[in-house]
Specification:
Blueprint lengths: L1 E4 L2 E11 L5 E5 L17 E9 L8 E2 L3 E2 L10 E8 L3 E7 L8 E10 L8 E2 L9 E5 L6 E10 L2 E2 L3 E6 L6
Antiparallel strand pairs: 1-2, 2-3, 2-4, 4-5, 4-6, 7-8, 8-11, 9-10, 9-12, 12-13, 12-14
Organism: Geodia barretti (Barrett's horny sponge)
Keywords: Repeat
Protein name: Fibronectin
């Protein structure tokens, strides 16, 4: 966010203050920024936001905007890098990385494999996996069957969109 005038180049400072006197700070927008992200705010807290335009020689007074209440994150974030690391006749081993955002909100993972052939019994899944896990093995699968396997992150605010992949178990005797 850049304001130019009278041969001067200005940039904006955004100041935030938690209404109850807690967290406060400021963020300076670079000359080429068109938006600014303030991180580390507390969900459920209300903050006052003010802005000033500054240059190397001048500084405006702060202009206060409306108070803003930070909303809670509404859903869980998906895992990253979901992949198969081992394939056998009757089992698949998967690995993944925890979500890069909101990992502290994760209460577990749901891992399910659905057979892609008719006549094969229902999906196989594991009980809710611990939030610290980054790999798991799903056993009891049928040999030579293609499966659509997916993993969803679970939090107290819901379930993420699944990360999915298709993989076929090894044929018997291979």
């Amino acid at each position: 966010v850049v304001i130019t005038g009278a041969g001067q180049c200005y940039w904006l400072h955004l100041y935030y203050q938690q209404i109850d006197g807690g967290l406060s700070g400021s963020v300076k927008a670079a000359e080429t920024d068109t938006s600014v992200v303030i991180t580390g705010l507390i969900a459920g807290a209300t903050f006052s936001i003010s802005v000033s335009a500054d240059s190397s020689t001048l500084s405006s007074s702060r202009s206060r905007g409306p108070d803003i209440t930070i909303q809670y994150e509404k859903v869980a974030y998906p895992v990253k890098n979901f992949e198969v690391i081992s394939v056998s006749e009757t089992s698949l081993t998967f690995s993944w990385s925890q979500p890069s955002t909101g990992a502290h909100l994760t209460t577990g993972y749901n891992l399910t494999c659905v057979p892609l052939l008719t006549g094969i019994p229902s999906p196989q899944s594991l009980p809710l996996l611990a939030p610290t896990l980054t790999s798991a093995t799903l056993s009891g699968l049928f040999s030579g069957v293609p499966y659509n396997c997916s993993i969803s992150t679970i939090s107290d605010r819901g379930s993420s969109l699944p990360a999915s992949l298709c993989i076929t178990t090894n044929e018997s005797g291979i």
